[in-house]
Description:
The chain has 327 residues and is α+β, with helices and mostly antiparallel strands. It folds into 3 domains: 3-106, 3-Layer(aba) Sandwich (Rossmann fold); 136-188, 2-Layer Sandwich (Dna Ligase, domain 1); 191-314, ATP-grasp fold, B domain (D-amino Acid Aminotransferase, Chain A, domain 1, 2-Layer Sandwich). Helices cover 30% and strands 25% of the residues. The chain contains 11 helices and 14 strands. It has helices spanning 3-7, 19-30, 65-76, 89-94, 96-101, 111-118, 120-129, 171-180, 231-244, 278-282, 287-295; strands at residues 10-14, 34-39, 53-56, 80-82, 137-138, 152-156, 166-168, 184-188, 192-201, 207-218, 221-228, 248-257, 264-270, 312-314. Strand 12 and strand 13 (264-270) form a beta hairpin. It starts with a helix and ends in a 13-residue tail after the last strand.
Amino acid sequence: MSSTDVKKRRILVTGVGGAPGFDLARSLLRLGCDIIAVDSNPLAAGLRLPDVTPRTTAPAADPSYRSSLLRVCGELRPNAILSTVEHELAKLAALRRTLADLGVTTWLPDPVAIEACTDKAAFHTALSKNDVPTPRTFLPPELDQVPDGTLLVVKPRRGQGAQNVHFCHTREQARVLCELVPDPIVQERVNGAEFTADCLVDRSGRASVILRHRLLVKGRLAVVSRTFHDREVAERVKETLSAVGAAGSCCAQGFITDDGPNRVVMTEVNARVAGGFPASEAAGADLTDQLLAGLFKNPVDHDRLQYKPDVCLTKYTETLIVEEGQQ
C-alpha cells in the first residue's frame, strides 16, 4: 500500500478532548486522512475541529464502553483506531479480534506491556528487572521502608493527566496523602531537568526516539519544549521501551539528574502520543506519517524520524469555534 493510499484512510482517534488526541487528529487531517473524532465528553474541543466526523462514546470505565465504541465502528467503518486514552487500552486490546472482523486495524502493545504503561508499580517492577534506573517506589503498606529524609511524591497508581499528584517531605505526610489519593503509590522525588521522548517502535521492535526538554509545564503538559540530542538519554529511553514491551507510538518521561548514582532516571512510559509531540514534528521528525505507515503494516522509515536539536515550540490555548444556542 502506498503512502498516498494510507493517508486516504479513515482513522478513529479517541480522547480528542485532551492535547494528545486533539493534536493527533489535527496532524492526521493535515495528511489528508478522514478523521472520526471521539471523546466521552460532548464538550471536548476536538469534536469541533473542522472536517472531522464527531462522535461521543461512553467513558472507558463505563460498562457500556464496549457496545458504544462498536456501535460507532459499525456505523462509520473506520479503517483503524488510534487511542490517546490510557484507561481504554486494555479494553481495546481485548476487542482486537472483534474490531478486526469489522475491518478496523489496531496497533497496541500486548497486555503485559499495557499493564506496565498504566500501572506505576508494574512499571517499576519491569524497569528494576532490567536494571533501568527509575525512582524507588512504595505501596502504602511499605512506607516504613522509606529512608529518612527522602523527598516523596504521592500519586494514583493508575492515574492519568497528573491528577491527584502531591509532593511531600516525610513518611507521615505521605501516609495522610495516601488516605486522600485514590489507589495511591509513593515514589522518591527526582531532581533535575525533566524531558519527554516522543517514540515510535516498529513491529520488529526497532525504536526511534526524539528528545525534548520540558521547559514550561502547565497541568503536567509541556507547553514549551525544546528538542535536544543526548546519546546516553536516547539509549536509556530505548532500554525502557524494551523493558516494558512498548509498540507503536508512545512517549517516555524521565530526568537528567543533578546528583545521585544515575545521570538519567526514567519515570514513565505512555502507550500513546504525547501532548507535546508537535515539537518533534516541527524539528523534522515525520512522526504522524510514519505512525500511519506502521499502523497499516508498512515499513517504518526511521531515517524520516531524524530531527534537529534546539527547535523550540510553544503551545497556547486558541479559540476554536464560537457557537450560539445550547450544546
